[in-house]
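hey so i finally got around to running the thing on that chain from the lab meeting. sorry it took forever, my laptop kept dying and i had to restart like 3 times. anyway pasting the input first so we r on the same page abt which one it is
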Amino acid sequence: MKKFYAFAVAAALGFGSAAVAQQTETPLSYYLPANTSYNSSIPTPKDILGYNVGEWHVSHDQLVMYMRLMDEASDRITLTEYARTHENRPLYLLTITSSQNQQNINQIKEQHRKLTNPAESGSVDIKNMPAVVWMGYSVHGNEPSGSNASLLAVYHLAAAQGPEIDKLLNETVILLDPSINPDGLNRFASWVNTHRGKNLVTDANSAEFDEVWPRGRTNHYWFDLNRDWLPLQHPESKGRLAKFHEWKPNVLTDHHEMGTNATFFFQPGIPSRNNPLTPENNFKLTQKIGTYHAKALDKIGSFYYTEESYDDFYYGKGSTYPDVNGAVGILFEQASSRGHAQESINGVLTFPFTIRNQFTTTLSTLEAAQAMREELLTHQRDFYKQAFNESKKAGTKAYVFGSEKDKARAFHLAEIIKQHQIEVYRPKESFKINNITYTPENAYIIPTEQPQYKLIEAMFEKRTTFQDSLFYDISAWTFPLAFDLDHAALSSKNFKGNQLGQRVEQMALPTGEVVGGKSDYAYAFEWHGYYAPRALNQLMDKGITAKVATDKFTTAGSKQFDYGTILIPVSGQPIGSDELHQLLQQVATENALQVHAMNTGFNPEGIKLGSPMMLSLQQPKIMMLIGDGVNSYDAGEAWHLLDNRFDMRPTLVKTDDFNRLALNKYNVIVLSDGSYGNISKDKLRSWVQQGGTVIGMGDAAKWLSDNGIGNITFKQSDKDTVAQKPYADMPNTNGAQVIGGAIFETKLDLTHPLTYGYTDTQMPIFRSNTLFMERSKSPYANPVMYTANPLMAGYISKPNLQKLKSTAAVDVSSLGSGKVIVMPDNPNFRAFWYGTNKLFLNSIFFGQIISGGSARTEDAHN
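ok and heres what got predicted. didnt touch it at all, straight out
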């Protein structure tokens, strides 16, 4: 039997006998339901880990060890690895159900999936069908009570005996994800265990409760994985979503923590903030499930609240994504001990207490799912039937998007959409709408008449009116705007089913090529392609010299080249012409680029290849400041873009170390959103004056302005002269002035180096702050400006909209021989804002070539 192997491994590894002394021990009986017997052959967490649950914070390797051994010990459990993190840690999903169901698991899965297909769901008999419950723990690594509670959940489900557990396992399939964020969990566990004494210290000032930057909340690249269910930019999310759609669960739980002085929250959240695409029945089911949580928490004496604070608007969160997929997502928020025991306004909050609440609501969820099984299954079937019927009546019959100049960007959006189990097609033939031509080679079509209609609408809609003006997360995420792609909603007048060409089954990044064969003179590629910066950096890594065209030109073959075209001379390179041709073939293929062989520098139109308007480029040597004061999300997004996507090597330097380091090896310094009061402004200013490029985003732009690094001006906050208001209205009144995340239109100067590669004078930008940058007195300093009517999607208050109109989105100042480039917004937001990534990358590659005449000049004597 499996269990013998489990104990043999445990004994061989030396676990199961030694106990770690502690101040007080928390026995299993503190957590487990009374009057339940357990199979003594199933190992408890202490049998394997050597300590009681809650005595220490479980590390990810320990958690994995226990889950693997439980897979061997119990025929109720099947363990599946579904992904690896950036740090190569395995992510596991445990399928837990009766042994009989395990034997028929594929048949159960297939029957369950039929509920989501309106063409088949009517024939499915739900009376004897198990409900499917997904339980996800600790997507934020420093909210560890969830993952530690998963030890108890797995033990209970594997070892509990009696008719109640047998009935539960027969009538449910439980999918348990014990650690959604292994990298963050391990980072946090290491910190708090390192700072735990033999005698627990509850003083909130203890270092145990003050983990170092970037803290354990995020994954390896400092992303919040709980916001990645829609964007799907990380391996953890991609693997998880594939399993989600493989099963289509009825209920999904998402176990979190909040402030130490809080109590316990369970959904539903604030009713007025539900996404309008979510059916009303979802809210009613969530309320009904909540009665089971309340009863369970009452029984153990835990305080709680519901229908406050949190919402279900942004579908990119783990507890909200299920709502647009026919399931019920449930968020749990437990007051956090942030260590082993900490003083709070409610007394000393212990780690075991936080774990018990998470485990208790795990069981209450299962009780609810079992009792409401047919109701939940019916909801799922009805959701997809109703969605499909709505799609037939909808005015929009399809969405089309694409890019003539950048197939890679369009590909990546199609790739995301397809991972959400949405059908994607190529156009059958070229067609034109709104003066844009879409071809089978550069475009994709998403017909709306399919089961995932609600999710399609969620990804493409441009909502600007809302029932509530407050949002727990962002208010807009329109994907074709995020990717800055040509796109259109097609009605029955301009779309027929026969316009659908080949259905996209396999996704593969388009390949590039060298056009024109080998050259002994020069090669050129335009900057339009998304991966053009990666291609240039790959060449520079090989020592290849490159120039950039600051004007247009046309070759003898009538090929027109745009601003920002990269020129690679053949002569003067460290490698021969044959090797250079081979290198360019490889680079073109990997980066979806067309590289053109040039046989003469005498162009019939535009600048010649030897023109002084062909400027030499230096390879960027990037320092990126991180650490205290820096927004780890924004810094992580910049790091991820450069390292993971563009294969560049930024040097991450802590702000505390900046003042003692020599800066002469760097020509670009990146300041992500944050406060930089601990670095020497004089040292930074001097470095810029000597020729460096500093890039400031978000509050870093304001810091540069306040410290006289760059001639940048921000609008001042209005003085509040309004009449007295009710104190109770303060949160909502103030909250309505927050720009939590919306999309706005800007206009571009396509001749400026910072906009090289763009082809449209209009570009959507994501904004999540109230920094309004004044337009420069120089006519050349603001290559990106907000339009007079900028709102495209999302919420912004009327006063803030007025402040934003016609302000600057990018500002460039000369400081001595260097450049100061600032943008109040984050061009790399959550890694799925592909459309504005190029603004950031152009700042890195082309900041060095911006002339003083195209920016405001300071210290002109230099």
